[in-house]
Amino acid sequence: MPGSRRPSDAVPRYERPFARLRTTLRRLYHGDSRAALRFQAAALIVDLAIIALFIAQPVLKNTEAFLYVDYSVAAVLAIDIGARLLASRRPWHRLKQPVVLLDLFILITLLLPETLINFGFLRIVRLWSLSKTGRLWQPLRHKGLDEWELPARAVVNLVTFLFLATGFIYTTFFRNDGLEGYLDALYFTVASVTTTGYGDITLDGSWGKLTSIVVMIIGISLFVQLAQAIFKPSKVHFPCPQCGLSRHDPDAVHCKACGHILNIPNDES
């Protein structure tokens, strides 16, 4: 018929490969097929390797390979950010999310390591962002170990704070002391968080005392959070179809947020 067009003509030809690429990335990042799960596991291993390099930064920064490693990590992170944006159904909305903005800031510190050297310690926050996005917990969910997710999140929060505080203290108070200074900063942070005493390492001046107070207060609260996650009754992962709340008591009949009737499977029946 005149004026009619075939469905294949609805999308310009040059957009079809791009659309196929987005669909493929979406299936890899968010799918549950065997290939997608393998891809997600490989991506998680790469993420954890990057975090390990961030922790080892004080050891690497005085070596000739530092810039090569730094820029290589920047390239991998840039590819990951770009691929996840393409896989998203709403890329511009995703770009405004705090975890994505944090990844972009980390990418900038990797691209400008000498200019932004004082902010390098913030890279460890990527561990926290991985926890918030849920990527770290996909293996637990796939194996039916959801009850361990809350304690594991508390451990990740504590570890992230330990290395974040260590990086800040090292940058501010021990910056010119190399690896020994970093170990002193880590020792001081652990001693502050556990309130076991400082021994022969203390921070001088008013800023040092204020830093000690802040580290102790946050550290104690994170330990309390960890204890609650371990000892309080476990919850099951079952998203409410009405409001989306995902954690409920094992015997819950109604959602405690919206009151919607739940039908939580009982493994014992």
Index terms:
269 residues, mainly alpha, Helix Hairpins, two-stranded antiparallel ribbon, 2 strands, flat, Potassium channel family protein, K_chnl_Slo-like, voltage-gated potassium channel activity, membrane
Helix content: 55-70%
Strand percentage: under 5%
The SSE order reads HHHHHHHHHHHEE
In total, how many domains does the architecture comprise?
Answer: 3
Assembly level: single chain
The counted number of beta strands is: 2
Radius of gyration: 23 Å
In angstroms, what separates the terminal alpha carbons? 61 Å
Keywords: Ion channel, Ion transport, Membrane, Potassium, Potassium channel, Potassium transport, Transmembrane, Transmembrane helix, Transport
Protein name: Potassium channel family protein
Subcellular location: Membrane
GO molecular function: voltage-gated potassium channel activity
